[in-house]
Amino acid sequence: MFRSVGLAWLADGGGTMDPAVLESLCRAGTLWVGVDERDEPVGFLAAHELDGHFYIAEVSVAASHHRQGIGSRLVEAAIEHGRRLGSDAITLMTYRDVPWNGPFYARFGFVEIDADAAGPGHRETLRRDAEYGHDPARRCIMALRLG
Q1: What is the Cα–Cα distance from 14 to 43, expressed in whole angstroms?
Q2: What predicted TM-score, i.e. pTM, was given to this entire model?
Q3: Partners of residue 90 on adjacent β-strands
Q4: How far apart are CA 41 and CA 73, in angstroms?
Q5: Which has the least CB within 10 A, 45, 61, 63, 70?
């Protein structure tokens, strides 16, 4: 799918988060896994605290299971967890112009926010993303205010 929006390098760029980081998030209770009818993993959402917010670091669903609501259920689980934690906001970084990125999160009430308002950890993550090849003009920070 990333090839269709000018991001072939991302599609070819390899896997997801480092397995050691995923294991750590699993132990912390902030890694959710979506499974298929055979109880096989087909997607995940990894999150952690960043700048005092509950930060969604990555959401990934296997192409074979897109458009089945798995990503939505993973995001909803993270939102509920953020509420239980008493977080003031849930944040994430995404492509504002990719339909299954920015517009997808907007359906949950996420809105684009300024990097300075998000905090230094978010700004550093944006900087690293740019080093990895993400176009900063297309990337944004989004937040869902909890209240």
Answers
A1: 16
A2: 0.86
A3: 54, 144
A4: 14
A5: 63
**β-sheet with 53-61: strand ranges across:** 31-35, 41-50, 53-61, 89-95, 139-145, 111-113
Mode of pairing for the β-strands spanning 53-61 and 89-95: parallel
For 72, residues 6+ apart whose C-beta sits below 8 A from its C-beta are none
- CA torsion, points 29, 33, 34, 39, in degrees to nearest 10? -110
Residue 119: left (phi > 0), alpha (psi -120 to 50), or beta? left
For residue 18, which phi and psi values (nearest 5 degrees)? -55, 130
Cβ burial of 70 (10 Å; 0-12, 13-18, 19+) is buried
Going residue by residue through the chain, which has 147 residues, state the pLDDT in tens, using 9 for 90 and above. Answer: 555 555 544 545 556 678 888 889 989 999 999 988 899 988 899 999 999 999 999 888 776 777 777 889 999 999 999 999 999 999 999 888 877 778 889 999 999 999 888 899 999 999 988 888 888 888 899 999 997
Residues 80/146, Cβ–Cβ less than 8 Å = no
Cα–Cα dist 134/146, whole Å? 28
